[in-house]
Design a protein that fits this description.
By secondary structure, the chain is an alpha/beta fold. The protein has helices at residues 9-18, 40-56, 67-81, 92-102, 114-119, 121-127, 143-149, 155-170, 187-194, 203-217, 238-249, and strands spanning 2-3, 24-28, 61-64, 87-90, 107-112, 134-139, 175-179, 199-201, 230-234, 256-258. The protein is built from eleven helices and ten strands.
């Protein structure tokens, strides 16, 4: 599993709970954070590099836990991995499936980074859900970086969240996809601003369910009854990654290995 930093740990958390006997290797490319500010070409190249690296580490399934990376590089990752018999799953398609299933009014909001919105990936994924939906997308260019910098959050963050929620409230959406894996960390603020009747869709549960399905279909589910291992790689400062990542994962990280990617 990989992400631009620690945000994808919100997805890993759900996978550790749902797939307790599997072994997980998580790579945080925090040296090149934030992905949401990169071009499509830069994102695609990062995805190619990390996919190739994880394949060399012996993975049986790759999860792109970064919405910006998935929007730009999912096809590129599959081009590299699938000839080697490895499936690639990403956060966008599962979230779209859940949002289309739970919305009552058909008005769906997407809160995401500029790179993700520009890619049109959520519009395409939601259009493929076989029901009429009205989609309102809102770019949140600063939110992921604020969350990545850490806790505690001050009143300025609350006001930022409110400003991003205003277009969604005006559109009267009843379901909002949190289109960045950092955003669940401010879900209480988002819920308060949007109202308790608005459903928030995050990647964690959806990805965990898809991983279970893919592993079962390919007969790759771990058969051991033991609890699986989980370990971490980062491209930036391991100490900083450990300190912030522990808060995101809500579990101890242990030793984090720093790696150098091309």
């Amino acid at each position: 599993m990989f992400d631009s930093g620690v945000g994808g740990l919100t997805v890993l958390h759900e996978c550790l709970v749902s797939l307790p006997t599997e072994d997980f290797l998580y790579l945080g490319d925090d040296l090149r954070f934030p992905y949401g500010a990169l071009s499509q070409e830069q994102l695609t190249q990062n995805v190619r590099t990390i996919t190739s690296y994880l394949l060399e580490r012996g993975t049986k399934l790759i999860v792109i836990a970064c919405n910006s990376a998935a929007s730009a590089g999912l096809a590129a990752a599959r081009e590299i991995a699938e000839p080697r018999g490895v499936e690639v799953v990403a956060v966008i398609e599962p979230e779209a499936e859940v949002a289309a299933a739970v919305t009552d009014s058909g008005r769906v909001g997407v809160l995401a980074t500029p790179a993700t919105v520009r890619s049109g990936s959520y519009l395409r994924a939601l259009a493929a859900q076989h029901r009429p939906l009205t989609v309102t997308e809102v770019e949140a260019p600063d939110l992921a970086a604020v969350i990545q910098r850490g806790f505690p959050f001050d009143r300025n963050v609350v006001e930022m969240v409110r400003s991003y929620c205003e277009p969604l409230k005006r559109a009267e959406v009843d379901t909002v996809i949190l289109g960045c894996t950092h955003y669940p960390l401010v879900a209480p603020m988002l819920q308060r601003s949007l109202g308790r009747d608005v459903r928030l869709v995050t990647g964690g549960h959806a990805i965990a369910a898809m991983c279970q399905r893919v592993l079962a279909e390919r007969d790759l589910t771990a058969t051991s009854k033991r609890e699986g291992d989980y370990s971490f790689l980062c491209t930036g400062d391991p100490e900083a990654f450990t300190e912030l990542g522990t808060r995101f994962l809500q579990m101890p990280l242990g030793e984090v290995e720093q790696v150098v990617l091309p």
